[in-house]
Design goal:
The protein is mostly helical. It has two domains: about 15-100, Multidrug-efflux Transporter Regulator, Chain: A, Domain 2 (Orthogonal Bundle); about 105-145. It contains five helices and three strands, in the order βααββααα. It has a three-stranded antiparallel beta sheet with strand order 1-3-2. Strand 2 and strand 3 form a beta hairpin. The radius of gyration is 19 Å and the shape is globular. Keywords: DNA-binding, Plasmid. This is MerR family transcriptional regulator. It comes from Deinococcus wulumuqiensis. InterPro entries: DNA-bd_dom_put_sf, MerR-type_HTH_dom, MerR_fam.
């Protein structure tokens, strides 16, 4: 967990608030925390779990990555990389160093290879989707078209 600088005022989400904002169940957020996919940013003295605003972005990214077919391990690595290179408010940390990233070079290489495979697949599908859209638009004009 990255400590929040004293000069930064962040509004933190509870587990339920984060879940509601992302459109998932509270149990999903709790499960992701339990398996290390989305660890909390803070835990209060009374044990209440809190998430920084950037956690909402990370949770949405996790959901997207999973829907794209990434494994839980790959998604966990993506979050670990993001957390290492970004502040809790989501801004890119220019001062990060390699030691901040808790992944081995092998893990990073596997992740990069997987991302290239996914990007290639989506580039191929981009043309297909555009063709389908053109075909459908010719036959069924969009309701929002003027």
């Amino acid at each position: 967990m990255t400590p929040v600088p004293a000069t930064t005022e962040l509004t933190f989400y509870t587990t339920a608030e984060l879940a509601r904002e992302a459109g998932v169940t509270r149990r999903t957020v709790m499960h992701y925390a339990e398996i290390g996919l989305l660890p909390p940013d803070q835990v209060t003295a009374s044990g209440r779990v809190l998430y920084a605003p950037y956690s909402l972005r990370l949770l949405r990214d996790l959901l997207d990555l999973r829907s794209l077919g990434m494994t839980l391990e790959e998604a966990r690595d993506m979050v670990a990389l993001r957390r290492a290179t970004h502040a809790p408010d989501g801004t890119y940390r220019r001062d990060w160093v390699r030691e901040d990233v808790p992944l081995t070079d092998e893990q990073l290489q596997r992740l990069q290879t997987r991302l290239h495979v996914l990007n290639s697949a989506y580039e191929r599908q981009k043309d297909n989707l555009a063709r389908f859209d053109r075909w459908l638009t010719k036959r069924f004009p969009r309701p929002d078209a003027d």
